[in-house]
């Protein structure tokens, strides 16, 4: 503080303090919180995965089947069970390779699964970089992927690796079409990703939407390539599964309205052609789950939940972001493909609704959420405002991710106590006794460590 004489009057001159942004760069603080928090969530994912036992039914049934088949037999074999309506040779070859390497050593599988998650996030980062989005956009994608119930289950379960392969194929295709490569190279790479996805899981057919991207540049070649892949796939599917190609789905117990229907109740409620009414309901229920979290496994959620509010707010933000984009420029074809993936991806749950069936449309939803959040932020013409929008979304989804991940070990312990501990001998005739014994001993170790 100093004194200054002015016209016989003494004025007190106070030193000027730097403004708040000069003292602390608020944007840098938000970015630092996001970076540290995302690293923490990723570590928590790895730690959680390592505490998950083998799934006592799906995982062990698949291991039993794969151990008795050679690699050469898999392309002409139904997937998961010899009598199943599924044809997934690429996923089976991948899982067979893991089984040949790791046997029943759970840690090896978890390391590969964690690597698949990192690969998926890296592909998302590459896409965002091509779109010139800020680097924190990738942090939002991580928090969404870990907070979404439709993605987390697929990441953690070994038997859901086919879903992960399809999602990675989609992410890779999106990265390709956003690159500076020639259209001919793009077509080749997208066709390869499409074939891998289609031969890993039935919903890989959704990646055929990338055909639209090539309609203007390579219409004839794209038609031959995508059409040829689908034709060959259907041919082999018919050879393996029969003329019906497994289109009837599986007679599983299902959620319907506010209750759960057993297999017998399902058949009694929807006999004959009435089953198509159930198919329509399942697709609508999955769409409601994806956009608003209004259902879970086909059952309508009758109370308000944090996740429902978060999903609804995110969907509203996506709509606002698309409106902002449309006012400034036309929607590019790759953005239309993402929309098709979100809305059309739910169709593959027509037979029975499960959260894990939404892994592909959920990842597309998360990708679009990030893009729309950045588009809204860009329209504010303020870097701090843009970062604040992303930070708010990141914080909301990170909280859900944290809740999801810390509850998983408890759920895993419940599986051990109810499905493994009481049964020294295998209960499922589709699982080999020695595989059950090894999985059970490993599960009991998890229980003892707790």
**Approximate shape:** globular
Percent of sequence in beta strands: under 5%
Helix content: 55-70%
- What is the N-to-C succession of helices and strands? EEHHHHHHHHHHEEHHEEHHHHH
**Rg calc:** 25 Å
Strand order of the largest sheet: 1-2
Give unreliable regions as ranges: none
Structural class: mainly alpha
Number of helices: 17
N→C terminal distance? 62 Å
Mean pLDDT value: 89
For the largest beta-sheet, the strand count, sense and barrel status come to: 2 strands, antiparallel
Q: How many DSSP E strands?
A: 6
Give a quick precis of the structure:
64% of the residues lie in helices and 4% in strands. It is mainly alpha-helical.
Defining key terms:
450 residues; two-stranded antiparallel sheet; 17 helices
Would you write up a description of this structure?
- It is a single chain.
- The chain is mainly alpha-helical and 450 residues long.
- A two-stranded antiparallel sheet has the order 1-2. Strands 3-4 form a two-stranded antiparallel ribbon. A two-stranded antiparallel ribbon has the order 5-6.
- The relative contact order is 0.13.
- The model has no long low-confidence stretch (mean pLDDT 89).
- Helix 6 packs antiparallel against helix 15 and helix 13 packs antiparallel against helix 16.
- The protein contains 17 helices and six strands.
List strands and helices in order, with pairings:
Blueprint: E1 2-6, E2 9-13, H1 20-23, H2 26-49, H3 58-67, H4 89-102, H5 106-130, H6 136-147, H7 149-156, H8 161-177, H9 183-198, H10 219-241, E3 254-256, E4 259-261, H11 263-269, H12 275-292, E5 295-296, E6 299-300, H13 306-328, H14 333-344, H15 359-379, H16 383-420, H17 433-449
Antiparallel strand pairs: 1-2, 3-4, 5-6
């Amino acid at each position: 503080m100093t004194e200054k004489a002015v016209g016989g009057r003494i004025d007190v001159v106070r030193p000027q303090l730097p403004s708040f942004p000069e003292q602390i760069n608020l944007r840098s603080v938000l970015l630092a919180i996001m970076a540290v928090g995302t690293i923490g969530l990723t570590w928590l994912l790895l730690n959680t995965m390592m505490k998950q036992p083998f799934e006592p039914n799906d995982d062990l049934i698949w291991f039993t089947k794969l151990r008795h088949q050679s690699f050469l037999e898999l392309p002409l074999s139904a997937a998961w069970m010899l009598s199943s309506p599924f044809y997934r040779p690429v996923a089976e070859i991948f899982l067979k390779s893991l089984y040949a390497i790791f046997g029943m050593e759970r840690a090896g599988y978890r390391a590969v699964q964690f690597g698949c998650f990192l690969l998926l996030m890296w592909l998302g980062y590459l896409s965002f970089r091509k779109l010139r989005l800020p680097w924190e956009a990738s942090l939002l994608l991580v928090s969404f992927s870990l907070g979404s119930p439709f993605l987390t289950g697929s990441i953690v379960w070994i038997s859901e690796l086919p879903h992960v392969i399809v999602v990675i194929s989609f992410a890779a295709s999106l990265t390709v079409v956003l690159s500076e490569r020639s259209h001919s190279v793009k077509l080749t790479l997208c066709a390869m990703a499409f074939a891998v996805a289609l031969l890993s899981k039935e919903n890989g057919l959704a990646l055929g939407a990338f055909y639209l991207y090539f309609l203007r540049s390579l219409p004839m070649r794209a038609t031959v390539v995508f059409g040829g892949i689908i034709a060959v796939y259907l041919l082999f599917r018919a050879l393996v599964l029969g003329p019906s190609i497994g289109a009837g789905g599986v007679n599983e117990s299902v959620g319907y309205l506010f209750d759960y229907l057993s297999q017998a109740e399902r058949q009694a409620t929807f006999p004959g052609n009435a089953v198509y009414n159930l198919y329509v309901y399942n697709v609508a229920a999955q769409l409601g789950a994806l956009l608003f979290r209004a259902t879970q496994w086909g059952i309508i959620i009758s109370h308000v939940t944090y996740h429902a509010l978060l999903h609804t707010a995110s969907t509203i933000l996506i709509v606002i972001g698309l409106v902002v984009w449309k006012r400034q420029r036309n929607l590019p074809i790759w953005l239309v493909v993402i929309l098709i993936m979100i809305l059309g991806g739910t169709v593959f749950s027509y037979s029975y609704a499960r959260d894990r069936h939404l892994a592909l449309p959920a990842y597309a939803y998360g990708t679009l959420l990030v893009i729309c959040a950045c588009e809204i932020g860009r329209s504010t013409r303020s870097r701090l405002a843009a970062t604040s929008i992303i930070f708010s979304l990141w914080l909301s989804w990170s909280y859900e991710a944290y809740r999801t991940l810390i509850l998983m070990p408890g759920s895993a312990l419940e599986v051990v106590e109810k499905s493994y501990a009481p049964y020294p001998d295998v209960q499922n005739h589709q699982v080999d006794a020695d595989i059950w014994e090894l999985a059970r001993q490993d599960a009991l170790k998890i229980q003892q460590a707790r």
